Amino acid sequence: MHPDPIRIAVVGVGNCASALVQGLTHYRGTGANAPQPGLMTPTIGGWGPADIAIVAAFDVVEGKVGRDLADAILAPPNNTLRFASVPPSGVIVSRGPTLDGIGRHVAGHVTEADEPAADVAAVLREAQAEIVVSYLPVGSEAASRHYAQAALAAGCGYVNCIPVFLASDPSWAARFAAHRLPIVGDDIKSQVGATIVHRMLARLFQERGVRLDRTYQLNFGGNADFLNMLERERLESKKLSKTRAVTSQIDAALPGEAVHVGPSDHVPWLEDRKFAHIRLEGTGFGGAPLCVELKLEVWDSPNSAAIVVDAVRCAALARARGLGGALEAPSSYLMKSPPVQHTDVEARRLMDAFIAGAP
Alpha-carbon distance 346 to 355, whole Å? Predict the structure, then answer.
């Protein structure tokens, strides 16, 4: 018998939210005993993906605000893969505060809704939300803090999917701990994305005795996230998050000029597909050079939604146990910039232990 559904609110009804909503519909139609490809952890705390219920949503874009969530996820500029037919949800997208949520490049592609901004905490309370999932655009520093504060006021846990440092900021972690509410963050580490592949290769060099001398990761895609990141000022936290995620896996620090990790361009016709080019150059036995180079192609948003279903269930499990503050183990395994970096093998062991009941 399943526990009660996990009631979540989604902030930002973009491609990532679309993939999550479609995914919850997709797995709702899968039998409990049937294979479920695409899931890292089929059940956590007795919850499967089908036990996650979206009860509130926020956006600022005309064509999304005031519409049923099932319709809003299909509205422009969303362009991710459509892999499930989502029935009407009964959840009407609320008008959130804009603050710094729209970058100057994206501003030319969207129109803000005329409705006044809702009281976020009041909407969360009325919907009886338990967990807030933040899919705000990269660089939304003020908006992220506004929603995190609203989550605290409404008694909600928080999953921070973007590179604004909250869970990894001791002051914010302490606020969630004081309210006995969990936070998982920061910045989603996709299921099999550029970061996890790059980290694994860097760690492989380390563990096999090869000195990593230089490395780069160049990413480009056609979604609004890549368009937003053309604004270099908004990209700073993203580059820092991705770079730290990779360099944390090696013992010897690399000089700054030897590492380049980050988004490089926006190619509209790619839509929500993301291409990553990764290169690692090292020194092996006897000083012999060694190089690994690869290309990764993914649909960006479904790749991240696989992580969110685990993050939400870990946050709900912690909330049920009365645990507050930053969740070290789930954050380390699921996020690029957790409060504490571990190798991915160790992080998975710690997350499994957390799920099993370890504090």
Answer: 14
* Residues forming beta bridges with residue 184, ordered by sequence position: 159
pTM summary value: 0.95
Q: Is the dihedral of CA 134, 312, 328, 330 positive or negative?
A: negative
Q: Are strands 325-326 and 182-184 parallel, antiparallel or unpaired?
A: parallel
Element (H, E) at 295: strand 289-299
Name the residue type at position 314.
C
Q: How many whole angstroms separate alpha carbon 27 and alpha carbon 95?
A: 29
DSSP-derived secondary structure for 238-284: HHHHHHHHHHTT-SSPPPGGGEEEEEEEE-GGGTTEEEEEEEEEEE-
Q: What tens-digit pLDDT sequence spans the chain (359 residues)?
A: 457 999 999 999 999 999 999 999 999 866 555 668 899 999 999 999 999 999 999 999 999 999 999 999 999 999 999 999 999 999 999 999 999 999 888 988 899 999 999 999 999 999 999 999 999 999 999 999 999 999 999 999 999 999 999 999 999 999 999 999 999 999 999 999 999 999 999 999 999 999 999 999 999 999 999 998 888 777 788 888 889 889 999 888 889 899 999 888 999 999 999 999 999 999 999 999 999 999 999 999 999 999 999 999 999 999 999 999 999 999 999 999 999 999 999 999 999 999 999 76
- What one-character DSSP code corresponds to residue 181? -
The letter for the amino acid at 319 is R
Instruction: Tell me how far apart the alpha carbons of residues 26 and 24 are, in angstroms, rounded to a whole number.
Output: 5
CA distance 304 to 169: 22
What is the distance of C-alpha 53 from the center of its chain?
18
Crossing angle for the helix pair 344-356 and 300-320, to the nearest 10 degrees: 40
